[in-house]
Amino acid sequence: MRAITESDIRTSFVNCSKGEAKRLGLPKDFDERPWDDLDFLGWRDPGAPGRSYLVTESGDRLVGIALRVTSGGGRGFTTRSMCSLCLTTRSGGGVSLMTARRTGEAGRQGNTVGQYLCGDLDCSLYVRGRKESVAGGAMEESLTPDEKVARLHANLDAFLAKITQ
Predict the structure, then answer these.
(1) What is the percent of the chain with per-residue pLDDT over 70, rounded to a whole number?
(2) Which of 118, 112, 77 is closest to 97 using CA atoms?
(3) Quick check: 141 and 102 in contact, CB under 8 A?
């Protein structure tokens, strides 16, 4: 992913108002992000823990999605869940159900799309082996890192399509 600016981020959101996009909190380490290793910029709002954001390149433009993290019961450390984007297995609540309001009339009627995602939204780093899940015991896969990245892109594109169509 190319490096993006705060202005790029705030104008990219498709499923929230301009006012909401203007008020969202950027990640504290925004200037230190490893842009070359990112397929999307994802973060939890430092001022509102129940909110997360995801910004990615789609075609020749940026698309930003505002997400809500559902509050579920605490999961034990031995319980594992899998992120639907990067297919990383996480334990202890490392994967959260996040919902995004759909765009257009469906979104105005309150329709949302939910997906289980890594709570830290660092999927790009997990598929590249730059970060490891504390759950350990990663699944054995015969895919190359490039194939894992391609799978991540396909899963992300499918998620975005559900939100924007």
Answers:
(1) 93
(2) 118
(3) no
